[in-house]
Amino acid sequence: MKSAVIGAGSWGTAIAHLLTDNGARVSLWARRPQLAEEIRRWRENRSYLPGVGISDKILVTSDLEEALYDAEFVVMAVPSQSMRSIIREAGKYIKSHCVIVNAAKGIEIGTLLRMSQVMKEELPSECRTNIAVLSGPSHAEEVARRLPTAVVVAAEKKEVAEEVQDLFMNSYFRVYTNPDIIGVEMGGALKNIIAICAGIAEGLGFGDNTRAALITRGIIEITRLGVKMGAHPSTFSGLSGIGDVIVTCNSLFSRNRRAGIEIGRGKSVGEVMASTNMVIEGIHTTKAAYDLARRHGVEMPITEQAFGVLYEGKNPLDAVDALMMRKGKHEMEEVVEKEEKRQDLKTW
Ligand SMILES: NC(=O)C1=CN([C@@H]2O[C@H](COP(=O)(O)OP(=O)(O)OC[C@H]3O[C@@H](n4cnc5c(N)ncnc54)[C@H](O)[C@@H]3O)[C@@H](O)[C@H]2O)C=CC1
Ligand SMILES: O=C(CO)COP(=O)(O)O
Fold this sequence. Notes:
- Residues 180-320 form the Glycerol-3-phosphate dehydrogenase NAD-dependent C-terminal domain.
- GO terms for molecular function: glycerol-3-phosphate dehydrogenase (NAD+) activity; glycerol-3-phosphate dehydrogenase (NADP+) activity; NAD binding.
- Keywords: Cytoplasm, Lipid biosynthesis, Lipid metabolism, NAD, NADP, Nucleotide-binding, Oxidoreductase, Phospholipid biosynthesis, Phospholipid metabolism.
- This is Glycerol-3-phosphate dehydrogenase [NAD(P)+].
- The chain is globular and about 60 Å long.
- By secondary structure, it is an alpha/beta fold.
- The protein has helices at 10-21, 33-42, 64-68, 83-90, 115-122, 140-143, 158-168, 181-203, 208-228, 239-250, 255-264, 269-274, 281-296, 301-311, 316-324, 333-338, and strands at 2-6, 25-29, 44-45, 49-53, 59-61, 71-76, 99-102, 131-135, 149-155, 173-178.
- It has an eight-stranded mixed sheet with strand order 5-2-1-6-7-8-9-10, with helices on both faces.
- Helix 8 packs across helix 13.
- It has two domains: 2-179, Rossmann fold; 182-334, N-(1-d-carboxylethyl)-l-norvaline Dehydrogenase, domain 2 (Orthogonal Bundle).
- The structure holds 1,4-dihydronicotinamide adenine dinucleotide (NAI) and 1,3-dihydroxyacetonephosphate (13P).
- The site of 1,4-dihydronicotinamide adenine dinucleotide has 25 residues, from helix 1.
- Residues 7-12, 31-32, 35, 48, 77-80, 82, 103-106, 138-140, 278-279, 281 line the site of 1,4-dihydronicotinamide adenine dinucleotide (NAI).
């Protein structure tokens, strides 16, 4: 069974490595011929995943048709804002019975669509029910070093989710299934905003209390938007919700957290973006989520302040003040409003 991994950044490379461990025949597509050539020459992706040997069983190519030839599974691991153009092109070579997995974490700016929605729009109609979403706390650098990791896969059809579960599962990569595509995808995308904010807080010299506050209140506003868009609230207590918020706000590998640290220390967003060849998804997602929150009339104070800092030149310290000095609230406001009849929640 052949799997094609589209995108040779850190995540695509780590996934190709994992699937090869699982005995699959794997191809890895890099957009730039020069990157494909470098990986083939060194059997290592020095630009995006240094220090990890790439098996010579993996076909590394910049030719989409060659990468997708004969593939039964296609894994999309490209930056979210490039998803549409790449899946449109890839769709020409994807067979109708193929399972197509989104591994990217973002929301398309402008259309405000989730990645699986973008894929649905661009793929031929016969492929559209075979789309799955893989998400959860999974830094490429750790997966490629075979460190125990747990993630979640969502799909419209249970069989599709289970096929992907079987494809990816092994002794160091545990995969759960979940029917809630919206929740799994929204959790994976929105956590990057909170990670940038946790980084900013760190760059400003704040401590663990601040990070814990951002993680906890962050998951609440993520849940608020996700539920409004049709997600199940419990998904946000899972791997693609709180799990991914925790890892991204704490890990040294997180590009979003690192970008936030630099911004907190005084660098501009432009400087931070120019200083890396890697994608900082949360910067784009902040804009998309800000627009989505306004469209749906959902209160997202952290995202709103992140938007101010990233897009309107707001001083991060003023953003912190704005968050801290909001009117006092009940911690479980929504729950209380929704479940007014439940006496156990109303203690006074
Ligand atoms: N790195 C990680 O640990 C994880 C990443 N992801 C997600 O996977 C997706 C891909 O991220 P990474 O592999 O980390 O990327 P990366 O930051 O390691 O590398 C970026 C990749 O995108 C390519 N690229 C840059 N501009 C492009 C464009 N305009 N069109 C097409 N390709 C372009 C680069 O050549 C490179 O291959 C993102 O949505 C990310 O959030 C998800 C889970 C884990
Ligand atoms: O999604 C990720 C880990 O689960 C990767 O996060 P970063 O893009 O911040 O590195």
